[in-house]
């Protein structure tokens, strides 16, 4: 093997049940994989719902409900703990998975109840982190194209960063100028002319306060907590609102242009195939190598673990 050849996982030394378990847990193209993910997502939804309902006064005042929520959380914690251990057992590099994004999320989904048990500190709110795991619903629904679209959007925003920075700089200049101008019009002028009365309280007490008003006005949010009192102030406010309507579509145009350009050079049908090395999801059914890390997607190209992968591809193609 040459030094430039990517190191392949030694599937011949792995038990076959680990290869089968990997396909079930990390890929959703088989019935077993879809069933596993559906059960997992139902558990996540139940957990998040239980945590939310525990904060409702009606359930807090009833011991029976709180006991039921407690038992449910312990049952789900054991389920998630078993799932986390199973993931560590079936991956080729457990440490890499443990320190990956979803690996950390999976670990945090198990810890809160154990922390409460051993320390007595309530950490139920931390269980809401389980809601992040609902992102895996895309795998169940075979909507990997949506994940690709999210990646395209992220890349489009990143490539437009310089244009967006210039745009935000212009906005901040406009906010600073309009806020300073409104401070002098509403605060200095009204105080100099003695127009401040109990019914006409000075709301533009400082330039930062006036800049806050300018941001709220330019974004057309309009809380109404700060309003101009003078005629000149109202004219400035109207001009700022029109300017906000004109500027709000500018970043959208930048990002839309980049997304359209990316779509013209990339259009592939993707599945939920997961790279066993970097855990990147979303590869073509006929792909042999990961487009992120370059390692082989086939567990063993020499014939041992590759049989499970090929049979899995055959079942998917037949379905």
Automatic annotation (TrEMBL):
Provide the alphabetized UniProt keywords: Ion channel, Ion transport, Membrane, Potassium, Potassium channel, Potassium transport, Transmembrane, Transmembrane helix, Transport, Voltage-gated channel
Recorded superkingdom:
Bacteria
- From the Swiss-Prot or TrEMBL record, state where the protein is found: Membrane
Q: Name one GO cellular component term.
A: voltage-gated potassium channel complex
| InterPro entries documented for this protein | Ion_trans_dom, VG_K_chnl, Volt_channel_dom_sf
Entry's PANTHER family? Answer: POTASSIUM VOLTAGE-GATED CHANNEL PROTEIN SHAB, VOLTAGE-GATED POTASSIUM CHANNEL
Q: Does the keyword Transmembrane apply?
A: yes
Q: Name one GO biological process term.
A: action potential
Supply the Pfam families for this chain.
Ion_trans (PF00520)
Q: How does it sit in the membrane?
A: Multi-pass membrane protein
A Gene Ontology MF term for this entry?
Answer: voltage-gated potassium channel activity
Which residues are listed as membrane-spanning? 35-53, 65-85, 97-115, 164-185, 235-257
Q: Where is the Ion transport domain?
A: 34-262
Q: What is the lineage of its organism?
A: Bacteria, Pseudomonadati, Planctomycetota, Planctomycetia, Pirellulales
Protein's name in the database: Cyclic nucleotide-gated potassium channel
Gene3D superfamilies, per this entry?
A: 1.10.287.70, Voltage-gated potassium channels. Chain C
Q: What is its main location?
A: membrane
